[in-house]
Each structure stands twice: as C-alpha cells, then as structure tokens.
C-alpha cells in the first residue's frame, strides 16, 4: 500500500489589500483633481514666440483675468481694490510673495495693467505671465 500523498495547497490571492489600494488611489486622484481645478479658471492663454517654465510657478499667487475683464484671486472673484489689500496683507505674512498672472488672450491690456499696478503698489515686484509657446506643448509662463 502506498503512503498518502500531500496535495499542494492552491495559491490564494488576497483581495482586501488590493481593494484598499484602489480606494486610496481613487481618493488621491479625486483630491488632486480638485486642487488643480480650484487653482486655474478656464482661460484661453495667449500664444507667445518665447516662454520659459519657471520651477517655482506652483508657489506663486495666481491672479486670473477673464476675457470680460473680471479679476480672480485663484478662482475667487475679487475687485482691484480688494486684491491690493489682500496682497498687502499677504506680503506682511509672506514677504517676497511672487505672482503668476493668467490673462485671457481676449482680455483688454488695460485690465492687465490695472492688476499689475495694484500688485506693484502693494509691493509685489516679481510677476510672470501665462502663455502658450510656439509648439503648443503646454502652458508656459
């Protein structure tokens, strides 16, 4: 008579850790997309022949100007006067604040100039402007 042969156990796949990872990734991408959508309004950025992407762009204060001339601090509508006082208060907290101006290609230059004047009178002297380079590969300030 032959001794009993041990049958190998079937390999088991643990689903619980995989489900946990999927939910973590889902939450991460939902949060990341929410942060990105809050920062930038839908604006048709002007084209430029030269543009350089600075490394510190995400750390800058974002000011958006729409084609109808409305001014936004990030995605919040704001007047020029309120923008100036907001920037003045921000400069007290964070000296050396830098600004990223995103103006629609159809916006009047007068509105861009008003924003620049408000920022300059508050003490900001470092501006970059959002443009698309000739290649159209992406937004370059």
Describe this structure in words.
- With 141 residues, the protein is an alpha/beta fold.
- It has a domain at 57-140: 2-Layer Sandwich (Nucleotidyltransferase, domain 5).
- The protein contains 3 helices and 7 strands, in the order H-E-E-E-H-E-H-E-E-E.
- Strands 3-2-1-4-5 form a 5-stranded mixed β-sheet. Strands 6-7 form a two-stranded antiparallel ribbon.
- A hairpin with a 2-residue loop joins strand 2 (71-73) and strand 3.
- Helix 2 runs parallel beside helix 3 (109-122).
- The chain is elongated.
- The model is unreliable at 136-141 (pLDDT under 50).
Shape: elongated
Q: What CATH first level of the domain at 57-140 would be assigned?
A: Alpha Beta
Low-confidence stretches: 136-141
> Terminal Cα separation, in Å?
84 Å
Mean pLDDT: 78
Tally of separate helices: 3
Care to count the β-strands?
Answer: 7
Structural classification: alpha/beta
Gyration radius over CA: 25 Å
Helix proportion? 25-40%
State which percent range the strand residues make up. 15-25%
| Most strands sheet | 5 strands, mixed
Question: In which order are the strands of the major sheet placed?
Answer: 3-2-1-4-5
CATH topology of the domain at 57-140, anyone? Answer: Nucleotidyltransferase, domain 5
Order of helices and strands: HEEEHEHEEE
CATH architecture call of the domain at 57-140: 2-Layer Sandwich
């Amino acid at each position: 008579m032959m001794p009993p042969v041990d049958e190998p156990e079937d390999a088991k796949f643990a689903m619980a850790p995989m489900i946990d990872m999927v939910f973590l990734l889902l939450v991460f991408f939902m949060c990341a997309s929410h942060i990105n959508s809050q920062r930038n309004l839908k604006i048709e950025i002007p084209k430029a022949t030269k543009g350089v992407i600075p490394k510190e762009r995400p750390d800058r204060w974002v000011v958006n100007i729409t084609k109808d001339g409305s001014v936004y601090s990030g995605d919040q509508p704001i007047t020029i006067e309120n923008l100036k006082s907001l920037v003045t208060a921000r400069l007290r907290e964070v000296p050396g604040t830098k600004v990223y101006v995103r103006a629609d290609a159809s916006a009047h230059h007068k509105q861009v100039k008003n924003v620049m004047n408000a920022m300059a009178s508050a003490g900001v002297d470092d501006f970059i402007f959002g443009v698309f380079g000739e290649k159209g590969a992406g937004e370059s300030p």
